[in-house]
Amino acid sequence: MRQGHFRTGIIPLLLLLVLIPLGCATPKQETQRESMKAAAIEEVKDTVVLDVDGGTYIPDLTHHYELNWESGMRVSDVLKASGVIKLSEDQKSIASVSDASLDPNMAWGVTLNDKELLVPQQLNKQVYTKDRLVVYVKKLEVKTSSAAASDITITLQEAENHAKVHTSTFVIPWETSSKLTDILNQFGPVELSPDHTAIQSIEDDPITEASDVRVSLNGERVDVSKLDAIRIEPASHLTIEWNSK
User: Fold this and answer.
1) DSSP secondary-structure letter at 70?
2) Mean of the per-residue pLDDT values for the chain?
3) Strand runs labelled E in the chain
4) How confident is the model at residue 41 (pLDDT cuts 50, 70, 90)?
5) Residues near 213 by Cβ (< 8 Å), separated by ≥ 6?
6) Ranges 25-29, 79-83, 180-184: which has the least confidence
């Protein structure tokens, strides 16, 4: 009888000794899982995509990059981060890609989210996370005198205390059915809001009040709040004035 009582008493004790370590292991395992989740989340970073496409001109020139994105990043920053794209001294154009040389009738083109950047200082345009840039080889178009009217002129006038302190003028290509929002969205010195309804910076100068910007088309003031409704005709002259801070 005593032996039976001993066995009956030792079994619960053994079970208790086994369950105690198992119970202690559960919180430890949860901690490890949470640490792994946190590490995985930390590894998911904001990125911007860059593709280099040589097309039929340089078919072997193909690269794909997913680069870390940082706030305030410009197109030029992304291109330089690739390690294969060299910019000109003024940082406004592409000098070479993988040291490949182009025919004089060819040039490097750049698109941002499938929209071609055509204007001076195009590489100064700001990029955002998940944006996609493509650098490709394109054939240069030779202008004739009849095509001279297919341009528009943009003048930027910075003012301080009602006195003009800085003026820049650009001549950029005009595209059929161009709207003011389309022109400004491709124009490097001007940065539109993400929804393209307002001008949020000019030459890196933040615009905090809509009244700080005045836009004139061929000498007539236009409503800045209706950028998408204003069509731009060839040979137009666009003037943008703003109050510097």
Assistant:
1) -
2) 77
3) 47-53, 62-68, 85-87, 94-97, 106-112, 115-116, 132-139, 151-160, 163-173, 190-192, 199-202, 205-206, 213-217, 220-222, 237-243
4) very low
5) 199, 202, 207, 224, 240, 241, 242
6) 25-29
159 contacts: CB under 8 Å, gap ≥ 6:
165, 241, 242, 243, 244
| 8 Å CB contact between 220 and 214 | no
Contact 42, 36 (CB under 8 A): no
d(CA 107, CA 97) in angstroms, rounded, equals: 11
Contact 123, 117 (CB under 8 A): yes
Reading the block at residue 63, the tokens are 């690269």
β-pair type (47-53, 132-139)? parallel
Q: What is the rounded average pLDDT of the residues 35-62?
A: 74
Q: 3-class DSSP state for residue 84? A: coil
Flag whether pLDDT at 127 surpasses 60. Answer: yes
Look up residue 5 and give its two tokens: 């009582």
Q: Please, what sign has the CA dihedral across residues 184, 186, 189, 195? A: positive
Radius of gyration of the chain (CA): 30
As a whole number of angstroms, the distance between CA 189 and CA 120 comes to: 9
Give the pTM: 0.53
What is residue 73's three-state secondary structure? coil
Tokens of 89: 């001294």
The amino acid sitting at 231 is R
Strand partners, 94: 87
> Are β-strands 115-116 and 106-112 bridged in parallel, bridged antiparallel, or unpaired?
antiparallel
